[in-house]
Every structure is written in structure tokens, then in C-alpha cells.
Amino acid sequence: MNFFRSQTMGYYKLIIPRESAWNVMNELAELDCIHFVDYDPTLPMINRPFANYIKRCDDLLIKLQLIEHEMKKYYKKITYCKDVNFLIKNFKQIIKERSKASHTYLDEIENDIDKKHQQLIEQSTNMENLHERRNKLIEHKSVLLKGEALLGQSFFQPANYVAEGYVNLQGKELDDIKVLQGSVKFNYLVGVINKEDQIRFKRIIFRITKGNAWMNTMDIESDQIVDTKNDDAKIIKSVFVVVYPGGGGSNVITNKLNKICESFQVAKYTFPENNMVFQEKLRSIETELVETRNLLEMTKNQVEAYLDDFQRVYQNSNCSQIEELKLFLVKEKYLYTQLNYLRVQGSVLYGSIWLPQGADIKVDSALREVQTIYEGLPTGQLQISPPEGTKPPPTFFETNEITWGFQEIVNTYGMPRYKEINPGLFTVMTFPFLFGVMFADIGHGFCLLLLGIYLCVYNREIKESDSLMKHALIVRHMVLMMGFWAFYNGWIYNDFMSVPINLFGSCYKTQPAEHPTYPDELEWALKDESCVYPFGIDPVWMCVPNELTFMNSYKMKLAVIIGVIHMTFGIILKGINAIYFKNWIDFIFEFIPQLIFFTCTFGWMDFLIIYKWFVNWTGKTDEAPSVITLMINMILAPGKQVDPPLWGDGTSEASTQTAMLLIALFCIPIILLPKPLILNSQNKKRYAQSASNLTENLNKDLYQKINEDTEGTQENSENHAASSGGEHHEEFGDIFVHQVIETIEFVLGSISNTASYLRLWALSLAHGQLAEVFFQMCLNGGISSGGFVGAIRLLIGYSIFSMATFGVLMMMDVMECFLHALRLHWVEFQNKFFKADGYAFEKCSYAKVMQDNAVPKEE
To answer: What tens digit of pLDDT does each residue of 232-261 get?
Structure first.
């Protein structure tokens, strides 16, 4: 029963010659059954023997990421690996067919990637330079054309010089400035600026020149200039022209404007002196643009040719070349990471491993296969060994598609100890059931059930598609069971989206009221005293005035009964654990008194609820006692006669309650005192024995110090210091305080945990009331109205009803019920027996690490 308790583990020593370390580890990593023990967890990976190989793999993976980025930029489709086991066999075959040493295949891959990466970088750099050149030419051409449109031919004409500051251009139009062209010398500043900086640039120009400048802009076509640093995104730029009075290039305004241009990083251009130079410059730019476009096209074709090589799926492969290289490097990195867990001594690697029972046969077979495949290479050796240190073996459960999700729920809280009962086995059954109790509804549960059936039936089709539903495939069986139990419990409550279903015929009929308050008043009466509704609750209870009171009482008591049974089962599992580990102290002084305490208190309360249900209170409902009152009086008024009694005259009931209370109180000191006293006595004996052994060892050391050399003596002293330092004497105060906390947590936790199960009632009530509100507000009016108006109201109301039901009940309430079921398992159930301080069996597996990296990351 590998899912009830962890698989039995064996501790082994692995010895591998360094010359065949790669080959041996390559075979072992395909077995998926080895847990390597790190010989020194405090030693950084960078200081280990194979750290350089890992760094090389990381560097190559980074280069492949850059190449993959380029492929996405050029819209190259990458074929990802769907079967990593096929790829592992392919790698193995390639290495086997080579005549060189197996580990040197990484060198070939490294040289190939470096070469192609360097070529791609050179071509990409050329592309960026050509784009930059093309951008400059487009900007210059735009400056000439837009500048001519803004300035006109008159600005090619010479003019006289007027000193700066004599002409105020504030508020003047360009035509007014051109009138002054014949008598005043104007300077101009022409350039290109990002459109987003245009307004700020204008404001600063105005402030610096105090309005003594004229400025205008024109946009360049948005599809012409690209940003080479941002995946060739389009940039919107504008040509600006600033005209201001003055002569020469060293005046104050010119210097200020140049500084502003530098701060905005704008490109400045000069305007030709005459029309002839203007036309000649324009033709030169056009010629250069044609040449640049041709070079760009050629370079782009070369880059795509390189990328096509990485995109191609080669023979005997199932994915693109870049994906195959990436997964090979992931595999190599993982191999050297596992080798770093071994201690290197000379030409041999020593390590410790954990193996599940029976896996040593597979490892021995793999070691023999290394010698068969690679002739002339020494293979490794496997030796059974007693475990070192006090750390227990790792925990390992075999899971499948059904149990994986439930086991993850447990592991998220904590990993079970080695050989501790696995809560995941029971979570498979109890988690969907408790969810169904809270989400109980025939309609909503059936929708969830249909979703689970759809995910299970069309599992492969969804996995191969791009549907968002494929992310839910991993929990499809959990959704299926949650939907089933919600559907089932909906029939128990007889609730179909707040509407009861009269499937078997009600046991009640209407008749004239015995004491009517108004004429023709009717009341419900049983058809037959022996009539019982076959399954679930009679639908009449949903139509009576006290419907909410009745359903609240029923669901609340049902929640308490389920909670007490669930927690009692958890306490029983604690006893089973104690028997398995032969921990008789916990079994006698914790499990037995805890079970008796819980049974005498909350088990007694469940008995009262069930007994009260079996009594026919027809015609004497006023005599029915309150279970809550009975439990309160049991504590506050022990021995007092019960009135009204649940059975008899109340005397036997009172004496039974008193006996239950006394037994429960007697269990508390049994839980609190014996265990710390016994543990303290055992610790004293163990400490005295270790002290006696230490004295004996010290006497031997003294004799050895006289007869042996200093080196040998130092080694022995270190060994004894290590052995004596491993002993730890736990004080009685620490043990007692821990037991006090455990006792208080159990006694008070029994009360709070039982109350916590009332969330089963509360969430079921909230779900039912929300469904009723949606039905009454959206559908009931249209159904009641009838006719054409009613049909219109029903059509509009149903659209609102469906959206509200999907958004609130099928999305938010599903998540809410899921989280509350999670809490009931983590806190109320598992804390009765689950320590959750184990650690997982981390199997060395190529398939797992490659599968994790084969899935493309979401952008």
C-alpha cells in the first residue's frame, strides 16, 4: 500500500570512477528511482567539482534564449517537444554512435552554438546599423521636404545682418517674418524630435527666447522610422523648424538652443544654402536610401536563413533544433548538478543515495549495462549501508492522474513523515464530499459534473489545442468528484437552484386548518403516519413558513455530525500511527484518553442529535429538549435532573451526562502528566548511559595519547567530540511545557474545531439563499406575469440570471467552498495525527526536468 504509507527506503553507498562518472550518471538518471544525498549541504555549488560544467550550460542556455527571442521577432514557429522520453532515447543513440568520449558531446554542442550565435550577433548588429542609417536618411529627407514646405524659397535668399534682440517675433506669422527677410538676418534650427516630447520642447523654446522665436512642426509618416532597440517598433517623430533673429553661430540664443537640443537628444540638421544644393542633397539621400534598403533585405534574408536552421525539425527528432539543443543542455546541467552531490576523492566519486524497496535491482542492472555499452570503461558499485546521522529517510508516494491533485493539497501543507499515514489517501474521498456538502445544489452540481466529464472524456483533444481549459486538465478528476458530490448532496437537500423537485410524491397534503385565522385557510397534514419520503427532504418543507428555520437546524446538526466523525477518524489514525511506530507512550497516554475525551463530549452530543431525530415528536414539539441546552447544563449543572428529558424521566440521562463529564475531565490529567514524566525518566537513563560511555572513551583516549602519535590522537579526539556532541539532553521543563501546549491545544481545539465545521452549514445556507435571490429577482416575475410581457421579462431576466449564476455561484462560490474544504482538512482533520515535518523523495529524473522545461513559458 504505497499510497497509505511511504514506500520502504534503503540507504546505499554509490562508488563511481571519475573517468566513467558521466556515463554512469547518464544511465542512473533515466531510472527515475534514485534520491541523491548531498554530502555537504552547506557547501556552495560554485565551490564544487563540476560547477564549471554547470556554468557552461547556463551560458549556452542564455545564448539560446537570445536566438529564440530573434526567432519570435521574425515570427518563426518553434516545434516544442511533446515526448521527452523519445528525445532522451535519441540523445542516447547519438552519443552511442560517436567514436569519441560521451561527455565531449557537450564540447561539440558548445562550439556549434557559439559559432552560430556569433554569426547571428554579427548579422543582427549589421541590421541595427543599417536600420539606424536608414532612420537617419529618412529623417534628413523629411527635414528637407518638410523644411521646404515650412520655410519656402525665400529663405534661400541672402539678407543683411541685424544684431540679436532688435526684432520681436512674438505673435508674428511666418509671412510677416518673410517680409523682414530682406533687411534682417534670421538664424534657423532644423531637426527631428520625438512627437511625445514636442509640446515640452515648444514650451522651453518659448521661455528661453522670451517669445523672440518662431517654431513649427510637421509629423513624419509613422511607418518609416523604427526603434532597433525595441523589436523594431514604429516611432512617431516630427520635423521642427525654429526661426530666430541674429547672426553667426556664437550668440546667446544659439548656444541656449543647442543645449536644449542636447538635453532632448534631438537630431539637428543644416538646411542647404540654395535650391541647387537642396535638389542635389535630396537626390543623394534617395540614392543612399535605395542602397540601404537593398542591404537591409539581403541581411534580413541571411538572418532568416540562420533562424530557419534552428527552426527545422531534423530526422529522428520530434522538435525544432533550438528546442532539442535547449533540452540537451538542461539534461547536461542536471547531470552535473547530481554529480556535485558526490564527494570526489582522487579518481573516485563517493556518494549516498536512497532507493525505494526493490529499486536496487534496477540500479545494479543499469551499472552492468554501462560496462556492456561502453566497453573498456569501469562501472560503478552499489553497496548497502546503515543510514548516517539522525535524519530519517525521505517520503515517497506513487501517485497517478487521479491522486496527484489530492496529494498536492496535503504536500502544500506539509510532507508526511517517513512511514506516517498519508492524509492524501483519505483526502481523495473526504475533500470532494465536504465540498459537495457546502456547494449542494442539483443544478449547479450537475454543471460542475458535466465540466468534469468533459475534461476527462476530451482530455487529449483539449491538451493538443490552445484552449484555456487545458490548464484545468491536471485537476479534471477532482472537478469530476466535486461535481458528483455537489450533485448528490443537492438531491439530499432537494434543492435545484432554490426550487424543490417533487420526484417521488410528497407525504403531505393540504386540508382546512383546525384553527383558521382567516376564511378558507389551509394547512399541511401527513397523508399517512407511516409515509416516508424515499430520498432527501420532502419538497413541502421548502414551501412552509418555517422553511428557513427547519433547513438551518437540519444543516447545522448534519455539519456537526460530519465534523465529529471526521475528527474522530483523525484521532483513530493517530492511534494507528502509534501502533505502527511502537510508540506505546503516545498510544496509552495520548490516543486512548483523547479518543475517550472526544467521545464523551462531542460524540455524546452527536448521539443526542441522532437520538432526537429517531423520536416522533408529532403533537408534542413543545416537549422536545434543545441539544444545545443539554450540553450547556452538562457542564454548568452536572447531576441536575434533565427537564424536559430526552428519554425517561431525566434521571438516567442526568447520571449518564455526569459520568461522561467526569470521564472527560479525568482524561485531561492523563494526557498532561504521564508522558513528560516517563520521557524525563528515559532521558535521564539515556544521559547517564552516555556519560558512562564518554568516561570510558576518555580513558581510552588517555592511553592512546601516550602510545600513539599526535596525528592519530587528534583524529580520535575529533571522532569522540563528534560522538559526544551529538547527544542532546532535553530538560524536563521543555518536555512539560510542550505537553501542556499539546493538551490545551487538543482540549480547546476540540471545541473550536467542532464549531469550525459549522461552515458546512453556513456556506450551504449562503449558496441556497443566493440562488433563491437570483431566481426571485430575475425569473419569478416573468413566470408570474405570463403572456407577451412575461415572456419579454423572462428573456431579459434569464440573461441576467445566467450571468449572475455563472459569475457568483459557479465561479466565486466554487472557489470559496474549495478554500473552506481545504481549511477543514489542513487544520481540523490533519492536526489530529499529522506532523507534516517530513521531506520529499526527490528522484533523479531526466524525464521530469526536461518535461518541466519543454513546456513553453507564457508571455
So the answer is: 677 788 888 888 776 554 478 888 888 888
Cα–Cα distances (Å) from 543 to 380, 502, 539, 794, in that order, read: 78, 12, 7, 23
Strands of 412-539 (E only): list them.
Answer: 508-512, 522-526
* Residue tagged 467521545 (cell numbers): 599
pLDDT in tens, 546-578: 888 889 999 999 999 999 999 999 999 999 999
Nearest CA to 435 out of 366, 382, 488 is that of: 488
Beta bridge partners of 269: 190
Distance CA 164, CA 270 (A): 21
- CB of 839 closer than 8 Å to CB of 394: yes
Residue with cell 416575475: 781
Q: How far apart are CA 727 and CA 687, in angstroms?
A: 8
399 has pLDDT over 80: yes
The answer to whether residues 437 and 489 touch, using CB atoms and an 8 Å cutoff, is: yes
Sign of CA dihedral 426, 428, 432, 433: negative
Helices within 538-618 (DSSP H only): 547-580, 584-586, 592-598, 604-614
First to last CA, the chain: 42
How high is the pLDDT of residue 216?
Answer: 83
Listed in sequence order, the residues at least 6 apart from 252 whose beta carbon sits closer than 8 Å to its beta carbon are: 164
Q: What letter would DSSP give residue 395? A: B
Q: What is the DSSP string of 100-127?
A: S-GGGHHHHHHHHHHHHHHHHHHHHHHH
189's enclosing H/E stretch is strand 186-194
